[in-house]
Amino acid sequence: MDVLNLSPRDVTPDDYLDVSVLLATAFDGPDEARLVEQLRKDGDIGLELVCEDQDGIFGYICFARMVSPFGFWSLSPVAIKRAYQGQGIGDQLIRRGLDGMRRAGASGVVVLGDPDFYTRFGFSKAAAAGLDSPYSRAHTMVYPIAKGANEVTGRLVYPPAFSVL
Ligand SMILES: CC(C)(COP(=O)(O)OP(=O)(O)OC[C@H]1O[C@@H](n2cnc3c(N)ncnc32)[C@H](O)[C@@H]1OP(=O)(O)O)[C@@H](O)C(=O)NCCC(=O)NCCS
Fold this sequence. Notes:
Blueprint: E1 9-10, H1 16-26, H2 31-42, E2 45-53, E3 56-65, E4 72-80, H3 89-103, E5 108-112, H4 115-118, E6 131-132, E7 140-144, E8 154-155
Parallel strand pairs: 4-5, 6-8
Antiparallel strand pairs: 1-2, 2-3, 3-4, 5-7
Helix pairs in contact: 1-2
């Protein structure tokens, strides 16, 4: 696959079932699919993209509105179909997603994940150092977009749907 020519598109309601199946399979359980379903019901999704080929959807990324800090979004979740993993697709989809959030005027993006993976995109633990989180600080990173977003302080308050996790 030519990953540099990946053409993610916006999710439509016709994709919801396939996205849930992809998430449940990639994460080995229903939690992330439930999270996304609840985020949609709550109107807390800013951007969700899928990649597809003739066999269907093989990639998905979602950005959810943080309650706090204002203007911040959470990258959660991202998933690539198992048979398509390890080809650079997740890397490209995350870069496209971050570009989309930048164009949409986001101040910053938060992620909870493996620093070895996410720092390559510009996520930084140092930029999240002033933020209290209900989750692991060691895995909390910020991708700063607006001026000052790399030294934001306060509490990370995730949208209500995160209580399903
Ligand atoms: C994590 C995931 C989205 C990455 O997508 P992918 O298409 O397999 O990743 P890529 O091929 O673009 O990998 C890019 C690089 O990141 C590395 N990488 C992939 N997943 C990683 C992980 N979980 N931790 C650390 N590094 C990882 C790869 O080894 C690769 O490194 P390289 O460029 O040095 O070879 C995908 O593996 C997946 O869906 N996993 C299950 C769901 C999940 O864990 N999602 C992330 C948490 S929200």
